[in-house]
Amino acid sequence: MKILIAEDEQDILLQYKLALEDKDHHVVTTANGEECLNVYMKELQKQAMPFDAVVLDHRMPKMDGMEVAKRILAANPRQRIIFASAYVNETLVDSVKQLKQIVELLQKPFELDTLVDLLEDKGIYEQLAQLNVKIKEIKNLNPTHDQVRDLLEGLNRLHMSKIS
Prior knowledge:
Helices cover 56% and strands 15% of the residues. The chain is an alpha/beta fold. The protein has 2 domains: 2-120, 3-Layer(aba) Sandwich (Rossmann fold), CATH 3.40.50; 121-164, no CATH class. Helix 4 (88-99) links the parallel strand 4 and strand 5 (104-107). The longest helix is centred in the last third of the chain and has 19 residues, at 145-163. The N and C termini lie far apart (38 Å).
């Protein structure tokens, strides 16, 4: 996966980068919201979905994470955004009001494995396995996060209709 991260605390940013690169992900790091937005927009000119996910700190210098998310989603509404924030309730309320959608949230502090698992859709794949889906075959297709989530939602609807 190709992941863009914006985090103003350098030690935390380095931990994220090392944990994700250890799992063979390509990581681009930025130290503030303005830099993150500039990197994103430059990459967006090259390809329609430049990053599999953008991880944003909520409070950053030069431009906060909410403003970055708002501008990224205005340019690319299907971009996966994950907020890493100590202010989860505030971030959730802001995301609904300003972005008109709920984005994924991680409550700081969190274990690095939690970030990796969320990015790699571990929870979704576990639910798919419970529905007897052949996970290896799905992963071989290299689906996007949205495709995997949509598959799970569709299978859950089918399962519920059989029960009814």
